[in-house]
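Hi support team,

I've been running sequence recovery on a batch of backbones for a student project. Most finish fine, but this one hangs at about 90% for roughly twenty minutes before it completes. I'm not sure whether the input is malformed or the queue is just slow. I've pasted the structure tokens below so you can try to reproduce it. Let me know if you need the job ID as well.

Thanks,
M.K.
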């Protein structure tokens, strides 16, 4: 079978879909809005379900080779400095879920996908090709490009992110929802971190209206820092430089984590946005994938994993034409909506104060390792495939 698939967006999800589609015998053209194929950002957490999807794409072993295995998810009270609980991610976890829990630098994972696409016959990568919309009829679909260009195919997949132009036509739900939460991000060389503070864990420090997460990336050469503040930010922005003094003031309640927060330099800030789950993201020969379909806050660490799951499932259904797109949507919407909701609702876990925080600590501390694994099993155990 040879079917032309047009993919709007050359991010992680779009490239993953291109690889999967090519493996199923389709010709694929990926249209990237930027002048070159590149991925910005720092660390990505990959739970076993994401690595399983990469296994299906033939990149699981390569990903594990560049990733940093994580030994535990560690929960700290950022006000008192108390260690509340840790979810172990060792042998029992790996046996149960079939893969490790790892972190990887976003750019390194992207490079694996990009190199694989460049080495795969049948995939055409076109940079500087922003998709603004589409036209379709009974014979096919045409992606409309800024400047008047047109690229035709049998099917179009919008993998063009939270501000997707394809979604604007398919769903027409306006601008993303402003969460009112500002996240501050920085990366520091691990050599600057005092040895007693280094660990192979993802660590959360939680406090009233704010929390702070850190974990090693790039094989432990760097420490990735991400701090969130529920500050009611009224206007979304992205990548704005902010001063060290501002970050420290905003995260002042986390006195227990001050020793690590104070190591951060060159902070940048984003106001987080997401969207409400929608029941339909397919229009005839057009469907959506990843953040274009189900954008979520990053608090469940599942954004990349869900995009990879989308790609693997959809790649196996493209041969069924528009009917396959409908089946893909039907199989993905409940799961992705649940992850969207838990990603938003998790703020109630990270940000309580006073008696509510004490009750949370007591409840978490009482959970066994098995119970903690049970709590994430619905996300981490998924092994995506066409025959489910």
């Amino acid at each position: 079978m040879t079917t032309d698939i047009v993919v709007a967006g050359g991010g992680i999800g779009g490239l993953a879909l291109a690889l999967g589609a090519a493996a199923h015998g389709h010709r694929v053209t990926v249209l990237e809005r930027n002048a070159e194929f590149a991925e910005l950002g720092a660390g990505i957490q990959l739970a076993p379900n994401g690595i399983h999807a990469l296994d299906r794409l033939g990149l699981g072993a390569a990903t594990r080779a560049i990733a940093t295995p994580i030994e535990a998810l560690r929960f700290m009270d950022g006000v008192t400095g108390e260690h509340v609980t840790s979810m172990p991610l060792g042998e029992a976890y790996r046996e149960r879920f079939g893969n490790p829990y790892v972190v990887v630098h976003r750019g390194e994972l992207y490079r694996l996908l990009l190199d694989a696409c460049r080495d795969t016959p049948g995939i055409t990568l076109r940079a500087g090709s922003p998709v603004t919309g589409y036209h379709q009829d009974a014979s096919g679909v045409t992606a409309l490009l800024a400047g008047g260009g047109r690229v035709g195919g049998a099917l179009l997949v919008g993998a063009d992110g939270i501000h997707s132009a394809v979604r604007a036509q398919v769903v027409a739900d306006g601008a993303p929802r402003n969460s009112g939460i500002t996240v501050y991000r920085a990366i520091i060389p691990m050599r600057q971190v005092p040895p007693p503070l280094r660990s192979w864990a993802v660590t959360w420090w939680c406090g009233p209206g704010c929390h702070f997460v850190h974990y090693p990336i790039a094989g432990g050469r760097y420490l990735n820092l991400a701090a969130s503040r529920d500050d009611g930010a009224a206007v979304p922005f992205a990548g704005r430089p902010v001063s060290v003094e501002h970050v420290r003031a905003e995260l002042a309640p986390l006195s227990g984590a001050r020793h690590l927060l104070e190591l951060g330099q060159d902070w940048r800030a984003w106001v987080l946005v997401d969207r409400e789950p929608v029941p339909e993201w397919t229009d005839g020969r057009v469907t959506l994938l990843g953040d274009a379909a189900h954008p979520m806050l990053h608090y469940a660490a599942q954004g990349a994993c869900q995009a990879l799951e989308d790609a693997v499932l959809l790649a196996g259904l493209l041969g069924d034409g528009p009917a396959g797109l409908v089946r893909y949507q039907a199989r993905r919407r409940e799961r992705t909506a649940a992850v969207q909701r838990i990603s938003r609702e998790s703020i109630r876990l990270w940000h309580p104060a006073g008696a509510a925080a004490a009750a949370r600590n007591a409840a978490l501390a009482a959970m066994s390792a098995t119970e903690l694994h049970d709590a994430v099993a619905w996300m981490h155990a998924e092994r995506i495939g066409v025959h489910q």
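--
Follow-up from support: It reproduced on our side and the slowdown came from queue contention, not your input. The two ends are 23 Å apart (CA to CA). No action needed from you.
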